[in-house]
Amino acid sequence: MSAPSAAFTSVRAFTAAEAHLHRQARGITATVAATLNAQFPTAAFLVIARHEVEYQDVLVLHSLRNLDGTLVYTFPADDAELRAARLPVLRDRVLRRAWGELDPQQPAHLRNLVHRIDIADDFLHLHTFDRPLLPDLPRRAAHPNDPHADPLICLPLTAAAARAAAYGS
């Protein structure tokens, strides 16, 4: 006895769903970048640390940096402090609507959204920006002389930052 046809999905429909998820992941990545750029106009990179905790990747928001790597904002390291922190008001109505029920002033919401983007990228090998979604940027490490420090990765927030990350300048 065969299963009901409603349980089946065609390869074509699945491929279309993958393409849709790819477009949405790129779009939400652009939303995050534009939001942070609106909140912090001099920021060029969202810098993130990737830890392994009990065999799981955990992304930790580290900082926002300008094009030359200078700190613009440091995210609280403590989870309770991160939940209590507030980012600047997002005045752009279109961007604010794009955040839906999430609060763009809440760094914990940003962290969770970046984590979801990273999962989508890992699942579909999206290579957003024609390179890994959160490319290694070790030059911008907070502890460049500490070989045991977690590697820092970044999300470029501007076209100039994307070029700088691509060329390692």
Shape: globular
Number of helical stretches of at least 4 residues: 5
Mean pLDDT: 80
Strand and helix order: HEEEHHHEH
Strand fraction equals 15-25%
From the helix content, strand content and strand pairing, which structural class follows?
Answer: alpha+beta
Number of domains: 1
For the biggest β-sheet, the strand order reads: 3-2-1-4
- pLDDT < 50 runs, ≥5 residues: 127-142
Query: What is Rg?
Result: 18 Å
Tell me the distance between the termini: 62 Å
Assembly state: single chain
Largest sheet, strands/sense/barrel:
4 strands, antiparallel
Strands, total number: 4
DSSP helix fraction: 40-55%
In short, what is this structure?
This protein has 169 residues and is of the alpha+beta class.
